[in-house]
Amino acid sequence: MFNLIVSYLTAASSSKVSNDGGTIEYHSGFLLILGVIILAPILEEIVFRGLMRQLIANKYNYIVISSLLFSLIHSPENSYLFLGVFISGILFSLSYIKTNNLVIPICIHLINNLVAIFLN
């Protein structure tokens, strides 16, 4: 695993990441790691779990609305992918409600993106 991470960090060739909402091309493994695996989960969880929870008092409405919006930004046209992302959003929301700590859904989201990148 360590060798795989090092090879991504030091890759000189470009990498493409697609989620059917568009393709992002990264010209180094470092940018891939930084953007998709680290920054995206942090920023998305701050918005969709932290901020949305402050705006929506009812926890059930919060879970559904934040997960729905989370799915829409990731896969607006692919219904199969939309459902998977929606379920992930529900799990991230539940982990935040249970712990009241954004670090938990950020870590789960980070691991999810890490696995998705390495399997892609």
Explained architecture:
The chain is mainly α and 120 residues long. The chain has one domain (2-119). The protein has 5 helices and 2 strands; from the N terminus they run αββαααα. It has helices spanning 2-9, 29-55, 59-74, 79-99, 103-119; strands spanning 15-18, 23-26. The protein has a two-stranded antiparallel sheet. Helix 2 (29-55) packs antiparallel against helix 5 (103-119), helix 3 crosses helix 4 (79-99) and helix 4 (79-99) runs antiparallel to helix 5. The radius of gyration is 15 Å and the shape is globular. The relative contact order is 0.14. The model is unreliable at 1-6 (pLDDT under 50).
Side by side, the strands of the main sheet go: 1-2
Q: Helix/strand-derived class?
A: mainly alpha
Molecular shape:
globular
The strand count comes to: 2
How many structural domains are formed by the residues? 1
Helix content: over 70%
Assess the beta-strand content as a share of residues. 5-15%
As an assembly, this protein is: single chain
Biggest sheet record = 2 strands, antiparallel
Provide the low-confidence segments as ranges: 1-6
Name the average pLDDT: 83
Helical element count?
A: 5
